[in-house]
Batch of 4 targets.
Target 1
Amino acid sequence: MNEVNQSPTYLWVGRILSGLVIAFLLFDAGGKLAKIEPVLKSMEELGLPASSATTIGILLLVITVMYAIPQTATLGALLLTGYLGGAVAIHVRVNNPLWTHTLFPVYVGILLWTGLALRNPKIKELF
């Protein structure tokens, strides 16, 4: 299937899903970069030093922008999958609730890849 045969409905649903993921991740990165007190407190509760907020925020921002750009979206999705996997590991380590905290990054990852597959026929062919 090529871009010409891509259903406009699938394309728009993919863009909307990807847009929601991008908005959430940009909000998350912004909170870390702005060093908002609740974000820093949450990081410390998860065992991450507050001093790492800027580094994590920059990494998340750069990778999210990569996901938003069509030419680098697949690489961005792969890198975000790694980032989200790390988030799952951190939640498991501190024994957070499974369905609401630990698996939340998995839910984001599902939306991320579904959005990419719907807006990029080459990715959809892999499934």
Target 2
Amino acid sequence: MNIQRPLFIFFFVLYLQTLSTAQFGLGLTFNYDFYQRYTNPRDNFEAGRSAGSVLTNISLGPKIWIGKPSFSFSVESQIGIAPLGLDTKEFKGLGMATLPIIGQLNFKGNSGLQTEQSIGYSIGGGIQYNRTELFGLKNKYEDLGVNRTFFPTYIIQAGVGYGIGNSGFLFNLFTRYGFNQESKAQSFNIGIQFDINMIAFRKNLNNPNSAL
């Protein structure tokens, strides 16, 4: 007997049941990176491949959640810029930019759907596009053929945070590392992330018993 069809039906019904009881969230995520560093793909030029930035790093983008107060899955993307990012050993230009696309499993206070104040944690991964020397690439490096473009790294991210009850707000300390085996490119980010679930926020804003 071919069991693939019954198994497919079972998991499909389970999936529909999960969706029928799941909650949804839609909002924004804001990152403030304490430190970030990107290493460009390996090339044949005698120029430094890495650049870093401390403190002057911000990111903003949309985020969605699906799940329950104790557990959720989220997808987010941000556009980030570090205007003072540079290679301190070999100055070539200023500025760094990043675009991560991340899927995460979130637990307890990090679920984004929490109803009580609690500590939580998240783990996930995805892909991140990075660029260094965003502007002002010095002429001598351009003459060597150095051309800075966005390059991908495959990332993992972990964080510990705190959800502020059913207000829709949570913050999260995170670390993110990325690597590309083929190009030898790397990325590293560490910082604090602030999320707001606008659906939960608006619901509580309209609730006369809410503290908001």
Target 3
Amino acid sequence: MNPSVSRFDTFSLIVLAGIWGGSFIFMRIAAPVLGPIWTADLRVGIAGLVLWAVFLVRGASLGWREHGRHYLILGFVNSALPFLLYAFAAQHIPASYSVILNATSPLFGAVLAILFLKDRLTAMKWIGLGLGALGVALVTDLGATATGAMFWLSIGACLLAAACYAVGATYLKLRASHLNPAAISTASLLCAGLILAPGLPLVPPKAPVTGLVIASVAALAVVCSALAYLIYYRLIARIGPTRALTVTFLMPVFGMLWGFLFLREQITLKMIAGAGLVLLSLRFVLSTADGRR
């Protein structure tokens, strides 16, 4: 693959960052009312059905028999588990925290590239990983005066979700890069919905569902999942998983901006510094990314 990134791909990354940055705001609205399982399952289920309807209209086939295993794995790793984890975290920490911690995904991706894509662990990458760890430590210190079990569980959930995205991107490049991005988006979301569905009767919504909650779920499903996944999988196919994960460079900017504008979340110098360290770490980690990924 050509190591350069086209203007169209750059524009797609910016749009995707804005969309996914907004997803944390919608989860922050929906999850405290619906709970994490309902929030995550409605998100992936509706998104999958929307995309499936598009496929049916076009008369296209998803190829379940040939590719079902890939769809199931990606549905779990790239949708069901991370969406559930972020929805859990949205009940306990501000959206800005989640979106900053989400930016660690390329750091996990760099480690996986070393292990599975024959990448080299250079001094630059060591520096990047260290800066990333410092950035996460600074961000989590924001809650030092109100720490508790749920705070730290939420931080851990966000980091695990970020790792899930890296695993999914690496698996896609190794095993499923030949598949149609739209088919992957549709089938993996449908699989994620089926994976989460058994948990719905066990945990009913926590409060009456308002129009704002319904609108937030609709935005999560149609815009932040259906549309965003089409963009994301196509970017992985065009520019590789490491570069595609650089969407997280811009997500903290959008996430903090949306949180400030719509949820009145505070933006502090410490938060900006932590996000800056994480983003600087990505610059070191990704500086030697080559066109083979």
Target 4
Amino acid sequence: METPFDAESTLPYLLPDFAAIRHEHFLPAFEKGMREQLDELAAITAQSESPSFANTIVPLERSGAILDRVATVFYTLASADTTDAIQELEEQLAPRLAAHHDAIALDPALYARIDAIRNAHLDGTAPLDAEQAYLVERRHIELTLAGAGLAEADKERLRALNQTISTLTTRFEKNLLADTNELAVHVTDEAELAGLASGELSAAREAAAARGLDGWLVTLVLFTGHPWLAAIEVPETRVRIMAASRARGTRGGDHDNRELVLELVRARAERARLLGFRDHASVVTADETSGSPAAVAELLGRLAPAAARNATAEQAQLTEVTGAAITASDWAFAAEAVRRERYALDTAALRPWFEAERVLQDGVFFAAERLYGLHFTERSDLAGYNAEVRVFEVSDDDGPFGLFLLDLYTRDSKRGGAWMNSLVSRSALLGHPPVVTNNLNVPRPAEGQPTLLTLDEVETLFHEFGHALHGLFAHAGYPSLAGTRVFRDFVEYPSQVNEMWAMWPEVLENYARHVDTGEPLDPAIAQRLRDAERFGQGFATSEYLQAALLDQAWHTLDVEQAAAVTDVAAFEAAALAAAGLADDAIPPRYATGYFAHVFSGGYDAGYYSYIWSEVLDADTVEWFRENGGLTRENGERFRRRLLQVAGTRDPLAAFRDFRGRDPELTPLLERRGLS
């Protein structure tokens, strides 16, 4: 069967032709793509010529074109616009794709050829240029950690484990989406939502109507705390929302993730032992900038006591202002009361100054123009995978060079959270331009009403656009090093840096204007926003560290320890108590039953990456402040020395090239009030 994936798209920038793609195209394209890539691999390993970069690495980099095209589109839809049919096919494909990956990663002839190329470079027989040498070293490490050097019997067991892991992670995500949708909180009396703004109420009514319900529907977000908890005045409603959020994946029935997690953790621990490591976290960090679970534990352990102290102090402030003991469902609402009293701030009342289109055009795009000389032109002639997706052509001083797709609103077919994705990654070898997407989950307002963002949503938009900039600017010679293919504990760094511009005076003044009157945000209020940035850091750091420590606790179990765990809730409680972060009023940002990052999202043993990257981010923000802030000169330095580098060199070396020294922890400690 011919499919649209058989050849490159003919649309501008190789944008997939979503209008031509039907569900029945996916399976034949996956099967053809896998066959094609295995044939290409066989041709590489069957050569009689001595291994060289040109006859081994280059064809390997070119291989799998059909598979790459179909997988990119399929998994974009699986995350952002899924259907029952897509979910069923995803579950069928998971073990087959794992087996396909193993057929390449565990091929002894391929490993031998790459090993020979590496040795010839190291001994000077066949020297490579810097990017080529880095690519060969990366390939060698990846294959080694994938098990290429194992005995055949161990490889056979490894293949079975990889298929099991792939199946379990796919099922976790499917269960979570279903449970998240089922647990949305249905309200039939508007009084129960007292405190919500009219736009939020209209969004809740729209969500209910979309499911054929009367009244209002509060759909859940990916993390534990719902943003509307800060505004809803009725304690019983807040309790319902918090309870629903925390119940995900742990209610029994078809969508319960607890037993699945235990199976997954055991499979990962056994896989680690096969590869010669104590635990899964050791495998993961061996190929990260952190280097070891011990280094991760050292950073998290240094931050946890100060975060707990700050959270306790904040809790005392909340109790003093509200006159009541604070529970998990009360915290956000009480924190808003403190902001109003101590800082004269009502963040919910600020939403009319954060209209989404103005934030995008006069905030996000404005900062990118000032820093990098970028311009964005909406292309209504180009379509995304859903009618809600907007397509923008991106230009700099040299002209148009890529596309940016924005998918802003929540829907039942979309997983929770916010993320960036590359539809096409730029590489010199293939001559491809960059095409990137940003996905958020902003509630859709009623027809004809403006989209008003919370401050958190504003910062999320800037954050995800930082990932988009990384994908747009990254310029590698070879596909494996292209786009945002950098170490996982480095990839959050560019996005975190971009968050700084949300509150930067020049940027905030430009976009924070009242949706009805155009009146700019009062400079005194803007200053109070900045003054209040440290308030709540005890809570924010504690909830994050709890999740990061849970991830490490699960993934530093060895085989015997993993087998001994039978009660997920008891394990969570013990892990948090051991870290000194157990607090009923502060639940983890993600608990095990809905911790998609680490049980289906590729951040297993890597959720620490956000705070690890933030060390670099805080140090970089300090550099921008010391050097004049939002200037083209500063932007060009950051673009050329960091964003453009992609995965072509050691990321910490790139950081040193930009900063002039190694990263320092002090700026992070000061930012979060932990010093």
